[in-house]
Amino acid sequence: MLSFIQNMGRTALNFLSALGRITLFSVVAIRWIFTPPYYWQQFFRQTLDIGYYSLPVVGLTTLFSGMVLALQSYTGFARFSAEDTVATVVVLSVTRELGPVLAGLMVAGRIGASMAAEIGTMRVTDQIDALDTLSTRPMQYLVAPRLLAGTLCLPFLVLIGDIIGVFGGYIVGVFRLGFNPAIYLSRTLEYLEISDVTLGLIKAAVFGFLIALMGCYHGYHSGRGAEGVGRATTNAVVSASILILISNYLVTALFFGV
Amino acid sequence: MPATAKIELQGVAKSFGDNAVLKDINLQVAAGESLVVIGTSGCGKSVTLKCLNGLITPDRGSIKIDGVEILGGGRAALEDLRRRFGMTFQFGALFDSLPIWENVTFRLRQQQKLSKAKARDIAAATVTDLGLAPHVIDQYPAELSGGMQKRVALARAIADKPEILLFDEPTSGLDPITGGVIDRLIIDAVQRLGATTVTISHDMASVRRIADKVAMVHNGVILWCGDVKQMDNSGVAEVHQFVHGLAEGPLTQTAASKQDGQG
């Protein structure tokens, strides 16, 4: 019994300690975002990687999610003769929930892993120490541009993903379920409010920050050797995915009713 | 020994958890002198080197450069100090994502806002001095051999003409001929710059070529320090065993007793 309590206590302390380290890491990184010199080349490279090269993955994910959503909601709503709400359900689900969460999870897998692996490899091959010896702060050069790029790029990615997802619903609605195209479009826009889209974009910014933070944090503190980098990569993806789901609820609850 | 040494370490100690890697390191390096630190693997040579430019902060002791204490001066003072240092790492530590010209002129570009053309010219001149073809500057580190990477790392370390150069095993992993070439390049570069150097090496042929003075670290202290010419007649059994690469001797017994202690 005593050892069980000890283990619980140790786990709780480890969790709080990790939380403290991550919070400190993010505070320092945010400070460097606003402190010159600014490493624009690093920022643009990350923007390209996160924003542009993630577009196919996010586009495909939201396209098929929109298509499936149209089919499933039609199946359900047909049972109480509410088929004409399919377009509304698709657009609200995609913009408020599916777009940001699915894009976030896909980007967490792609970018979170890549950041952790790149920075982790730099750690184990002394490249981060080399930055220090060359009078460059690693947090400012490596972490700050990634956090900024992640926070700014994901909303744009999600906005494009939203459009593609709604388009996926439109394709199924019109070509498979036989909706009139004009009516489907008007139903799509009829109940959509700006706040639906902005809520999704706020979520996306939060997710982008968390993905970059987890990628950088686990890479920066990577253990030695290939095993250490591998573990850092896995931890980055898992922790980013969990944080996305937790923060998704928190942001939704914060803006509930808005 | 001059009145004020270029580099002076007094009572430097560093532990990682329960492992006291450095217990009491005392060293002096005169301006323009080339000190090589030798010792068995894991004895704390690299930790000593990293303490010198603030990559690792000692638990206690004093490190002075030109008579000025560098410990406890804060981040800004440390960054100012690092501008006077050039360092190469055991495995090069070149930035994978940058071409060679950006690697070589990395610090110059950060500090002097050089134009791309000017930076490329400086990189080409620096790598050419080290025996590489100028077109190498457009390649990436992964496209170069180990020997070429060592030369590029050396080019990066000397590009902005530092006063103090730190080399962490500059010839490790190289064949003897390439190792000899790297040593020659280090000697030439150091003479050209008039720099003070601290090198870590296991390669005794290299030690004899580049060292003015040799210090042996063992059990967290400087076991012996003297002129390279006296190395063979140090009168210290551990130094004799290490220098001649003997399988039997006090270093082997120490390693065995440590293993027993851990077991």
Structural commentary:
By secondary structure, chain A is an all-alpha fold. Chain A has one domain (61-249). Chain A is 85% helix and 0% strand. The longest helix of chain A has 39 residues, at 86-124. Chain B is of the alpha/beta class and 263 residues long. In chain B, the strands form 2 sheets. Chain B has a 6-stranded mixed sheet, sandwiched between helices. In chain B, strands 2-1-4-5 form a 4-stranded antiparallel sheet, covered by helices on one side. In chain B, helix 6 runs parallel beside helix 7 and helix 7 (176-193) packs parallel to helix 8 (204-210). The radius of gyration of chain B is 19 Å and the shape is globular. The mean pLDDT of chain B is 89. Chain A binds chain B through residues 37, 45, 118, 121-122, 125-127, 129-130, 132-136, and chain B through 50, 53-55, 79, 82-83, 85-87, 89-91, 93-97, 106-107, 110-111, 156.
Task: Please write out the topology.
The complex is a heterodimer of chains A (258) and B (263).
Chain A: H1 2-33, H2 40-52, H3 55-77, H4 86-124, H5 127-133, H6 138-176, H7 181-190, H8 194-220, H9 225-254
Chain B: E1 7-16, E2 19-29, E3 34-38, H1 45-52, E4 60-65, E5 68-69, H2 74-82, E6 85-88, H3 100-104, H4 106-112, H5 116-129, H6 146-158, E7 164-168, H7 176-193, E8 196-200, H8 204-210, E9 213-218, E10 221-227, H9 237-244, H10 250-262
Parallel strand pairs in B: 3-8, 3-9, 6-7, 7-8
Antiparallel strand pairs in B: 1-2, 1-4, 4-5, 9-10
What's this entry about, in short?
Chain A contains nine helices and no strands.
Gyration radius from CA atoms of chain A, angstroms: 21 Å
Strand order of the largest sheet of chain B: 6-7-8-3-9-10
Outline of chain B, from the CA principal axes? globular
Query: What's the number of structural domains of chain A?
Result: 1
